[in-house]
Amino acid sequence: MDSSFVDRAWLKWVTADHVGSSGSPLKAAVLINYDPTGPSRLLSTIAQQEGINLYPIELKQFIDFMRRGNLTTETFVLGSKQYLVTSVHEDWFAARCLNTTQPAGEGVIVMQTAVYVLVALYDGSIGSASEAMAAADQLASELSRKNF
Length: 148
Fold this sequence. Notes:
Elements (H helix, E strand, L loop, with lengths): L2 H16 L9 E6 L11 E6 L5 H13 L6 E4 L2 E8 L3 E6 L8 E7 L3 E8 L2 H20 L3
Antiparallel strand pairs: 1-2, 1-7, 3-4, 4-5, 5-6, 6-7
Helix pairs in contact: 1-3
Protein name: Profilin
Organism: Arabis nemorensis
GO molecular function: actin binding
């Protein structure tokens, strides 16, 4: 795996005003090494993160949630926020925050590539979700072109 390519793609994507800056579609993003076909003893690790600090125990709980495959019947936690999946698609799913303090709400887009999971967090509702999806898809497509 060419980690330098992934590092460059992440930096280019983050610095293109996709994450964290005022007016960005995303408030935070995390890129996780993840092989769904690998043995469970292989630990997923955080490859990159911006705007959020996930800890190993939170990451493990999230990956366990994904491996169980009960996306629409369980909730998951990222940081201090609990999320409920609202739509599931072939390589991605969307979820809304259950314990938000934001008037317009908060959500997350989770996209899976061959060896990564991109978690993209945003504030807002439907319009914000569309912008978040477009921003997340840009990085996921770049990784998929290299079969990552």
